[in-house]
Amino acid sequence: MLRFTEDNRVIDQESYRAILVGLQFSGDIERSMEELRGLAEADNVEVIGEAVQALDKPNTATLIGSGKVVEIAEMAENMEADMVIFNDELSGMQLRNLEDALKVKVIDRTILILDIFASRADSAEGKLQVELAQLQYRMPRLIGFGKSLSRLGGGIGTRGPGEKKLETDRRHVEGRMDDIKGELAHLQVTRKVQRSKREKSDIPVVALVGYTNSGKSALMNKLLELTDKSEKAVREKDMLFATLDTQQRNVKLDSNHEFILIDTVGFVSRLPHGLVEAFKATLEEVKYADLLLHIVDASFEGSSFQIEVTNKVLGEIGAGGKEKIMVFNKMDIADEMQIPQKGEDNIFISAKTGENIDALIDVIKDKVFGSTVKAKLLIPYDRGDISSYLCDKASVEAMDYKENGTEFTLELSEADYRRLKKYEII
Description:
The strands form four sheets. The protein has a six-stranded mixed beta sheet, with helices on both faces. The protein has a four-stranded parallel beta sheet with strand order 4-3-5-6, sandwiched between helices. A three-stranded antiparallel beta sheet has the order 13-15-14. It has helices spanning 30-42, 66-78, 92-102, 109-120, 124-138, 142-145, 165-200, 216-226, 273-278, 280-287, 303-316, 357-369, 384-393, 414-420; strands at 3-4, 10-11, 16-24, 45-54, 83-86, 105-108, 205-210, 247-254, 257-263, 291-297, 324-329, 346-348, 372-379, 395-402, 405-413. By secondary structure, it is of the alpha/beta class. A hairpin with a 2-residue loop joins β14 and β15 (405-413).
């Protein structure tokens, strides 16, 4: 699946017929294999067969046992498969040995995820991040990729005396990785400047995080729809990794409740380390958010597994201790028997139908803006500074100019209420 041109670009192919192979060391890998099937389908691969082998330790040469290799080779021939996808990461030697034995293209879970990311990244930064992760994966596997590797080509200065192709390839990959890291560092500086401006504006940030295909983009679009900003909708599709590039939208709930909503790349179990590293600059936005909305697919039987994976990735990027709300989505299709018990910080919604979105907005307001108090204040005309402050910071329902001051009917923070309580009209 992952083929490269001379300038290190991915060569696309329309569709593939694949057999999935898993190695079971301990415990059940059914969920992991189910996820692998979803990843394959997300990359336009038709899964026509599946094989799992239980071993105490992996085979150094082929990961799976020699007998299993023969069995899968027969499956591939009889079922006319043109690819075998392994659930475990393969070394360069294993890739080469398996392709020689199976006579079809062999890839692993990591290559599959990288290929999906390569086809979905839209922004310049996203494409650079994916390419860096691809190169980091390929570097220790140069031998295994064989002739599919790009080369620098001939010409003065491109090769030293007696230099082998493998050494040339290594130099080419290392040089390109250095170039990408430089470009990403420049983009990171730009993001820091943007973040600094945002912090000065004092607008809070809410970030959507969660497992891939849990409904983060759908929730963002629902909130934009409710605030009359449907034209700002983001890409939304029922598939793994539909959204890769971080999306930011301004959400104005009312005149005095406004925040920036960030939609991030979804997580998946065993997300390649190189990919997490490459996307750390983008995911860094999560670290600086005031509140995380952890979106969970309530209709998925293994939602607890997805929660665990998300928490693990959040910990890896330094956001494990951020304040968050657990948002169980897809309640319109969820089975009542598998819905977790309702907790204080659990909200149950449907981004598709809009069920309970109002309750979620109320919780966001409470967490981000703090508790508020409804009051009626009479502010003297000689305290125009207070009137201006209230118009700017409080949610004003009505203003009436009286003989001895401006009467405000409003909703303001508890701190402001305590400070201005002497102006309250009883």
